[in-house]
Amino acid sequence: MKLLATGTKGWFVYQKVVVVFIAFMIPLVAMNIWVNYKEMAFTKKTITDSAVAGASFYANQLDKELYFIRSQQLQFVNDKDLQKLSFQGSTLDEYALFELINQTKDRLSAIQYSSELIVDAGVYVKEIGKTISSIGGISDTPNDDSEIIVPLAGLTPKPSFYQKDDRLFFIESENNSGIISYIEISTSRLREALRQITMLYQESEVFLGSKTLGHVLSTAKDQNVIIPLLAQLEEGNKGNTNPSRVIDIAGASYFVMTCPVGSLNLSLVMYVDHNEITRPLRQYSFWFYALFVIAIVVLLLYSYSLNFMIHRPLSKLTKAFKMIETDNLNLVIESKTRDEFHYLFHSFNRMAFRLKRSIEENYEHKIAIQQSELKQLQSQINPHFLYNSFFNIYMMCKVGDSDGAAELSQKLGSYYQYITRNGSDEMPLYKEYQHALDYCEIQCIRFSNRIRYEYEEIPDYAKAVTVPRLIIQPIVENVFEHAFEDGMMNGILSMTADYREGVVRIKVEDNGRLLTDETLQSLQEQLRNDSGQQEKTGLMNVNNRLQLKYGAGSGLFVSRSQLGGLCAELMIRTQNERK
To answer: Is the pTM of this model over 0.70?
Structure first.
């Protein structure tokens, strides 16, 4: 099964869970906020409608009361006894006049007692030069009442009520002011009636007034709000039928309700601080926002708990896997809980231990195989090579070339001593390099000097670098076996060695003419994709040994030489070697 690994640049799992949770919660919270605001608006409207209804009720009751008083006054001025007194009063005898005056006074007393708002009910009769009052009795004119009433009755245009100082009057005249009926309304009782309306809300105030007359009667001690309030009401009433509104005055908001009082041609206005109206909703709003804050806190705690319970263990597990990718198997994940992650951590620790043991066993097995292959390579001495070498020594002795025979014998002895010794598997680079040069010298003698070799000295700093034994000679041997087997003259073999930045590079080139592009490509493919079933005594053996010991990047790489033949470059990355 092929597993697809996800990158670490995306979101973490717990972040996705939190985002999904928030995505589901946002519509619910938004709907809850919308419902709460709708409910608060509905509750607020219900409260204000109740206040408007209460104020309207009291205003209508007051208006009906005043209309009742006005209707009695209108009926009184048309009374036949009063009319007779107005037209015939001066011609009546004393008894008849006295009787009519008493009847009029009784009628006025009945009007006074018909309403608690009436202080006094009276009439001025010009014909007899008297005023008749329910509380003041019968007085000759001029008197205090006539001096107030007569000038007021002459005002034009005729108002709906008359005001003198702090006194309110209803005045009706008949017979060209021959009869002037007046009813004085008690301002204290009227103010008391207005105070009943203020009982709807604490800290509310009520007044009667209009823009032209200002406030006629008010329950407020501080009346600085009334004048700007009347001005805004007058402007707002144009095209507005809503009896209630919120008006801002001097930085404060007031909830204002207006009700017409037609009997006085005034408006009854109740105003209250807007905060007073919303006071019942404050506690509800407080708990609403408190619950909203609690929801945010719960969300943060939920995110933290996901981070603590899921993200941290996953991060710990992810870091452990990344450490395994760097070949660090000496790790153990500790678990302080007994949940699913405890099982995962325990399984990971067990897997890491088994993997470490398996790698160690596999590595030791491969090292053993490598050593076995090296022993096999050492034992594979080419009889042909040995026979030809002895034959060359024989021929040199026959022709009397004792120096050449001695040198060849010395080279041959040194060569076989090096490949048959059972010492360390690694040698200094200069010894391995010298062994390859000895082999080249022997081969050049065998090939009757029709082949020569060139080489560069190893830098002093690279001589002490250790390399596996017998890794250069198989490459040189391959040149003599394949590059020059057609009997070419003037064959050249070039060899160099270097060590830089932890990498040993040994290059062997020839000018052989037998290497085709197809053969080179096939050889490159075999070196790249060696399956372990290739030959183990030549180039493949060297490549396998280096890759097994030093890892990726090390091995044998072939290409076309600048001399025309094969270029075999051996690379050893010593920093990749297993510790």
So the answer is: no
